[in-house]
Design brief:
globular, disordered N terminus, 450 residues, 64% strand, 28 strands, mainly beta, 1 helix, two-stranded antiparallel ribbon, 1% helix
Length: 450
């Protein structure tokens, strides 16, 4: 059970109180120049403070955040620079230049150490459209502060945007205890290493001919426990013509035991993802309808292994004023090659999944239904009874009035050797009652294993 109470006045001051059935309670107090958050659950607690000069010193906005904050942005890419192998055919996954960003803790998150974040925006002091920001993050998790700077400018009547950023800092890593003299992974003691991320983006858009192109070059440098630096590279390309996008992303790591800022170990590999995403309008029964089609192909060529994953995603979506329907299919397999010759020798399909989703936009209600099925195929066998099926049904219902009520119900199960197992049922109801200036939010959740 979740209960939240909020009151807001005309001068921008907001107060929200929170409590739930897990013995968590907290609150958020917001003004035009500050925000304070706190929450507590038994032995755990967190807090967050935001101070900003945006309302009182507009030429030079300064933002300070303290407490159990979460840092992301360019830090997330420094932690994991690899490509995403997601299954959505309606997302390009192409990235652009960014700097550090931070957010205050939520009421139920207690995993972050205390840290501080500073952002200074010099954009209003420069001759527009030039913009420049610097960020500083200090955390007990790192051996030194993490810095970032991002600069951006527009050229040729704002048709070309050039952006560049740099993020750098020193991060701890643990001792490699999983190694020995007889393993390929060498032994090293715990310590800290410098990690740096460089990003450059060129984005061109011509509205008169409805054409655009964007490219982002990324290089991440990681200091090795043995002294020298290892480097990984990534390139993202996007070309748009009218309502069609063509995109390609490539990632390269030539080094073994590359350790990122989050202690993630990267294998020597080449990753590639390419696809198309297009949208077309047409008229059906005097109603405008948009059809959206997407398809992409992802692969990872391991430079020291003989198996390489391959994923194909495709889907189609129909959207109108009153309805949205989408159907997508994904197939996953492994390509096998010899160590001496990277040329593909054998392909084995390991997984097939499909999803059907429908939403109806009525005047007072918005019901939606999602059906998904996944088939896992056991390797190197033709026995149908070894196949594993997973099914999931999700029903969601939301009203569109001033007082919001949302209900959700989900059922999932697994079929293995013609036997149904792992049957799970979960349901939740969320209510948002708007009695200005008071807002009351309540939530009930339940789950069962059948």
């Amino acid at each position: 059970m979740i209960f939240s109470l909020a009151a807001e006045s005309f001068d921008g001051i907001n107060l929200e109180l929170y409590a739930d059935s897990q013995k968590t309670f907290g609150g958020r107090y917001t003004t035009p120049v500050s925000e304070i958050r706190f929450s507590k659950r038994e032995e755990k607690q967190n807090f967050g403070v935001l101070l900003t000069t945006n309302a009182i010193c507009k030429p030079l906005p300064i933002e300070i955040k303290l407490g159990n904050i979460s840092c992301s942005g360019s830090l997330s890419r420094l932690n994991n620079p690899e490509l995403s192998s997601g299954t959505s055919p309606f997302s390009t996954g192409v990235i652009t230049t960014t700097g550090l960003s931070a957010s205050l803790p939520g009421f139920t998150s207690f995993s972050k150490e205390e840290s501080s974040f500073l952002q200074i925006d010099f954009s209003r002091l420069t001759k527009r459209p030039l913009s420049f920001k610097i960020n500083l993050w200090c955390s007990q998790e790192n051996s030194s502060p993490v810095y970032s700077a991002i600069i951006s400018d527009k050229l040729f009547s704002n048709q070309l945007t050039l952006s560049a950023s740099c993020t750098t800092g020193a991060f701890y890593y643990d001792e490699n205890t999983s190694s020995s003299w007889f393993l390929n992974s060498p032994y090293y003691k715990e310590g800290s290493h410098n990690c740096t991320l460089f990003q450059v983006t060129a984005d061109y858009k011509n509205k008169s001919i409805k054409t655009g192109a964007s490219t982002t070059l990324t290089a991440a440098l990681y200091e090795s426990p043995f002294g020298p630096y290892t480097a990984v590279y990534r390139t993202d390309l996007l070309y748009s013509y009218k309502q069609t996008d063509f995109y390609t992303s490539v990632f390269l790591n030539n080094y073994e035991d590359t350790i990122t800022s989050s202690q993630k170990k990267l294998e020597p590999a080449v990753q590639a993802k390419t696809g198309i995403l297009t949208k077309r309008p047409f008229v059906f029964k005097s109603e405008p309808v948009f059809i959206r089609f997407g398809a992409n192909l992802y692969t990872k060529i391991n430079l020291t292994k003989t198996e390489h994953p391959l994923r194909l995603n495709t889907g189609i979506q129909f959207t109108s004023e009153h309805n949205s329907t989408s159907f997508s299919v994904s197939g996953i397999g492994n390509i096998t090659s010899s160590k001496n010759n990277p040329k593909p020798e054998h392909f084995l399909l390991t997984d097939i999944s499909a999803q059907l989703k429908n939403s109806i936009y009525l005047k007072t209600l918005t019901p939606s239904l999602t059906l998904s099925a996944e088939k896992k195929i056991k390797a190197e066998t033709k026995d149908d009874e070894s196949d594993i099926w997973k099914y999931k049904i999700n029903l969601n219902l939301t009203n569109n009035g001033n007082h919001k009520l949302n209900g959700s119900c989900s059922f999932s199960c697994t079929a293995k050797n013609k036997t149904i197992t792992d049957k799970k049922l979960s349901a939740s109801i969320t209510g948002r009652l708007n009695f200005k200036p008071v807002i009351i939010i309540g939530k009930l959740t339940a789950s069962f294993e059948l």
